[in-house]
Each structure stands twice: as structure tokens, then as C-alpha cells.
Amino acid sequence: LEAELLLRQGMAQAAREHAVQAAERHAQACLLESCALLAIAGSAELDLGHPERALQRALQAEDLLNQITTTDPVAPLELTELSAAAQIASGALTAGTDAARRGIAEARALGLQDLEAKLLQTLATAQMRLGDRSDAERAARSAYALFEANADRGGLASASVQLAALAAGRGEAAATRKHLDEALATARKLQLQRILPMAAAVQLELATLEDDLPLAAQARADYADLRLQTDNWDLAEIRWLRTRGKRQEVERVVSASPYRAGYQASLAQLELGRARLEDGDMAGAARAVKLGHSLAQKEGLRELMLYARLLAGAIGPRQARNWDRLISGCLRARW
User: For a tag site, which of 163, 198, 244, 332 has the least CB within 10 Å?
Assistant: First the structure.
């Protein structure tokens, strides 16, 4: 309980250390308790921006779980949710999506609505990154409905942040603000610090949509004060800096990013290419867009592949008929 409280309050490092130490103490006496503690440690690693370590914790917990006989369905499903979230955060979107779908089916069959809602959120994250935004919206709204049915205010706040991110992706500033305000009001009232990093990233996306300098300054200050991380922050900052015409700062953030593969790396390169394009550096733009497209193609990120085609069309020589066909195809895309 103490480890869970620390995690909820945004003290991820303390939660991780407490959970690991307690798991070691309980290793012989109660393996099921150790499994739960390792799952908390894994969640803390995710909050600290270490998805690979989170996955290692999940695998450790699964090894312990395999050593005992239990009829409790919750522990295996919690590990499924952690594994899926860690895989998605590390860029293994297909594996994470498959794990989330299996978990959703199991949770639904057992009537475990809280876990079903969390797994739906995990699935929505993967679908959003894969470019299936309509499916992501359905999953996120289904999660919200389950949290609402169970009066889970913390879950509702988390789901509201996700809905705000989806609205920002559609360019709908009013809907983004509505969902974000709802999430922040609950998070601050209940001291749900874990939600704040993602909320700050969405807030910066909103500032970009509305060209709102004070809101951007507030989001950046809020994020700097947090002891947690979200893999969405760098992308939000890159987009903000690009729209301000600050190419060199975009170059700096992209260069410093720890991501070299997957969704984050692909989109960062495409935004870098766009920044170079807007600065008149066609050769540099072409290199970044080519790399971004290659990374997207490797992971099957259809939305980003489409974005790359648009940027490549804007960079290179093109015939009007081909450009019109490309634009028409983009407008018809379901994502």
C-alpha cells in the first residue's frame, strides 16, 4: 500500500526503491506479494521513462508467478497490462497491441472492469501511434465509460488526458481544453501526480494549436518541476519549437532524445525535416524525412508514412497531378 501511494503521488523513484526492497523481503514468505510489488516497481520505471526496465520487472514477476498455484486472476492481468504498456512505450507496438487485446478479452470475461479500462487505455495509446485514430478514440471512450460506471475518479482523470491528446491530434482546441481542464481539476484535487506529465505535454500541444505563449510557458514550467517523465514531452516540445521557427532548438531536442527507433524517433525526424524545410535547407530536410519514413515503415506506422510522403512531396520536384493525387489520398485516409 505504501509503494502504491508513493507511485500515485508521483514519487516514482521512492516507489520503485520501496517496492523492490519489500519484494526482496517477501521473496520467500509470499511470492504473490512479491509479484505485486515487482509490478509496482515496473510501473515506477515507466513513470521514470525506462520502459525496458519496466519490461524486465514484469518478466521477473511472471517468473515468480509461474512458481506458485493461484486462482487469483488479477495478478496475471496486471502483469499483462504492465508488459503491454512497456512494450508500447519502447516502440514494440504490434506486440503491445496483441498483449493489450488478450488482456481486454480476459478482463471482460472475468468482469474485471477496472483492469479492462486500463488495458483499453493501453490499446488506445498503441492504436494512436499506429495511426488508427478512430479505433483509438473508441477504445479511449470505452475506458472512460468503464471508469465512470465504477466512479473511479482517478481513472476518469487519466482517460480525460488521453481524450485531450486525441482531440489535440485532430486539431480541436476547444475539445482539448475541455478534457484537459477536467483531468487537471481531478488530478490536483486528488493529488494524482502521475497524470501531470502527460497533461503538461497535451497542454503544450494545445499552446501550439492556439499559438498561446503564456500557456506554453506554463506547460514547460510545470513539466520542469515534475520528477516524472512522459515519452510524449519531447515530441510536444519539438512541435512547439518548430512552429516558433526555432530550428536550432529543434535540432538540439532531437539530437538529445534517447529514442532511436519506433514512433517517437520517426515523428521527431519528420518534424526535424519540416523545420529544416521551413528554414530553406532542402538537402537537410530530405535526409531527415527519409530517415523518418524508414523508421515509420519498419514499424508499420501508417500515419507517419503518410506524413513523410507529404513532406517529401513538398521538398522535391513534383507534378501538379501527382501532388493532387497525394493530397486526395491523405484526405481519404481513415487516420
Answer: 332
CA 41 to CA 241: how far, in whole Å? 34
Task: Please name the residue that has the C-alpha cell 506529465.
Answer: 197
Q: Are 299 and 91 in contact (CB under 8 A)?
A: yes
| 159: its cell numbers | 482517460
Grid coordinates belonging to 255: 539530437
User: Helix 93-110 vs helix 74-89: angle between axes, to the nearest 10 degrees?
Assistant: 160
- What's the residue count for the chain? 335
Contacts 24+ apart (CB under 8 A), 160-166: 160/186, 161/195, 161/198, 161/199, 161/202, 162/121, 162/124, 162/125, 162/198, 164/199, 164/202, 164/206, 165/128, 165/198, 165/201, 165/202, 165/205, 165/232, 166/124, 166/128, 166/133, 166/136, 166/137, 166/140
Residue 227 C-alpha cell reads as 520528477
Give dist(CA 191, CA 9) in Å, integer: 6
Distant-in-sequence, close-in-space partners of 19: CB < 8 Å, separation ≥ 6:
3, 37, 38, 40, 41, 44
Per-residue pLDDT of the chain (335 residues), as tens digits, is: 788 888 877 788 889 998 999 888 876 657 778 888 999 999 999 888 888 999 999 999 988 888 877 667 888 899 999 999 999 988 888 899 999 999 999 999 999 999 999 999 999 999 998 888 899 999 999 999 999 999 999 999 999 999 999 999 999 999 999 999 999 999 989 888 889 999 999 999 999 999 999 999 999 999 998 877 787 899 999 999 999 999 999 999 999 988 888 899 999 999 999 999 999 999 999 999 999 999 999 988 988 999 999 999 888 776 667 788 888 877 776 55
Selection from 190, 191, 185, 188 nearest residue 164 by Cα: 185
pTM over 0.85: yes
